[in-house]
Amino acid sequence: MDKKATWDRFYTENNSRTPTFKNFEWFFGFDSVRDFIMPLLQTKSHPDALLQVLDMGCGTSALGPCIYRHSPLPVRVTCADISPIAVRLMQEHIQAKAIQPNNVSSQLEFVELDCTHIHKHYGSSSVDLIVDKGTTDALLRSKEGKGKAALVLKQCLKVLRSSGSLLQFSDEDPDARLLWLETEAQEPGVMAADVGVQEVGELRGVCYYCYQVTPRCIVQE
To answer: What is the largest CA-CA distance in the chain?
Structure first.
């Protein structure tokens, strides 16, 4: 599940099952988590700048477009996925649907991006919010994905502003995920982070969680 070809095949096959495009949602849709996401987009870090939002491993989810559509403050939502098939399907769908943003200054883009290379798209301390709905879960459950998942987490922390947050939506139990996050997000003298968890709720008998990771400033001695 950490291979590009796997996801290209998945989105090609999934799209061919229906005559018209249909968003595919891992776990749940925007409405289930809007109360976790939208409060983080209430204040701007810079008066004239767009809030930078990354939907990491977006697939063909409507999550990123919904943030774009509902945010009262101007946002630039980047929906990124390793699969060019998923990116193309979303671009075509959005062009056909012509979604209008809540704020006329908001922007929405879809880019092909390996989430282990986030630093190639963003500079340090430039992103306000990163949303990860199932991407880290897919990596952690892959044979060679654990190292990639740790790399992705570290890159997220580097590109996030000090006021920014990473939200990971997952069905992994807090006993396991919190320990992993707290361990991987610490690098003595380089990076540190505060980690918290809230329960999203139960869906089809599975309990889901929202893990919030916030960079903490390292004071150089």
So the answer is: 61
Report how many helices (DSSP H) and strands (DSSP E) the chain contains, helices first.
Answer: 7, 7
> Domain 3-216 classified CATH 2.40.30.90?
no
Q: How far is CA 135 from the centre of its chain?
A: 8
Closest by CA position to 37, among listed 127, 163, 165: 165
Calculate mean pLDDT across residues 7-21: 65
**Cβ atoms 155, 127 nearer than 8 A:** no
Q: Tell me the pTM.
A: 0.88
Which helix or strand (DSSP H or E) is residue 127 part of? strand 127-133
Q: Is 220 exposed, middle or buried (0-12, 13-18, 19+ CB in 10 A)?
A: exposed
Least confident among 7-16, 38-47, 109-118, 211-220: 7-16
Residue ranges in the chain assigned as alpha helix (H): 4-16, 30-37, 63-70, 84-97, 135-140, 145-159, 174-184
Which residues are within 8 A (CB) of 202 and not within 5 positions of it... i.e. 6 or more apart?
Answer: 208
Q: Which residues contact 40 (CB under 8 A, 6 or more apart)?
A: 128, 129, 165, 167
Q: Report angle CA 214, 37, 151 to the nearest 5 degrees.
A: 40
Dist. CA 28–CA 25, nearest whole Å: 6
Beta bridge partners of 218: none
At residue 83, the 3 state secondary structure works out as coil
A 10 A CB-CB count for 18 gives 8
CA distance 14 to 63: 18
